[in-house]
Write a structure and sequence with these properties.
Oligomer: single chain
Shape: elongated
Strand content: under 5%
CATH architecture: Orthogonal Bundle
Distance between the termini: 47 Å
Mean pLDDT: 90
Largest sheet: none
CATH topology: Arc Repressor Mutant, subunit A
Number of strands: 0
Number of helices: 7
Radius of gyration: 15 Å
Helix content: over 70%
CATH class: Mainly Alpha
Structural class: mainly alpha
Low-confidence stretches: none
CATH superfamily: Homeodomain-like
Length: 110
């Protein structure tokens, strides 16, 4: 079972890297398992809930995308699966205390 759980976690991690906006139900269908197995695999391997892990993955991906100044905040939000730039902005603000624009500017400040 530990090997199976490790493989499942690797699949979850890869799927969220490829499709950061994927929902738990989408993952369970695409991976052919139920949501409880996904939640358990994440908890065992990362020590956090699936929701928290998903948030961490999305935030890391958002920070990478925001480095590309050729992408608007609206384009970044769409890439991450948000329905609006405002929803993405609320996510960033709640997760970091900063707006997407200020996260973008952060890399140029000391």
């Amino acid at each position: 079972m530990p090997q199976r759980r490790s493989e499942l976690f690797a699949s979850i991690d890869a799927a969220l890297s490829e499709t950061p906006g994927a929902r738990l139900v989408d993952l369970s269908h695409s991976l052919g398992t139920d949501r409880h197995n996904i939640e358990n695999a994440v908890l065992v391997h990362r020590g956090v809930t699936f929701r928290e892990f998903h948030k961490q993955k999305r935030l890391a991906h958002a920070k990478e995308l925001l480095k590309n100044e050729g992408l608007s905040v609206k384009e970044v939000s769409a890439e991450l699966g948000y329905r609006s730039a405002q929803a993405f902005s609320r996510f960033c603000k709640a997760a970091t205390g900063r707006t997407p624009s200020s996260l973008r500017c952060k890399r140029t400040s000391p």
